[in-house]
Amino acid sequence: MTDPNLENQNRNLNSESDQYWRDNYTSRPYYQDLHRDIPDIDYDTDLSSAYEFGRTSRSGYGENARFEDSETDLESKWDQFKAKSRLKWEHAKHAVKDAWERT
Length: 103
Fold this sequence. Notes:
mainly alpha
């Protein structure tokens, strides 16, 4: 049986994180490169899954885990997680790392 309070807390964290990235993704240093390579880049289609992947992956690797130490493993999982995103790992990793480090 799941705890409804925990589910609500997780839902709130998800929506707060999503809103943060939705409001800030165009100001990130890697955004211009993404926009140059994918002119019609879209938050919902392309970037939201990268930010979600970074946020959720962090907890699976432990509180003190470094992105750089986990990157190879994350890269191998990206194609399964990315949903509709058109980002290849080389581009997605910057957003994934951003979310990883913000967690």
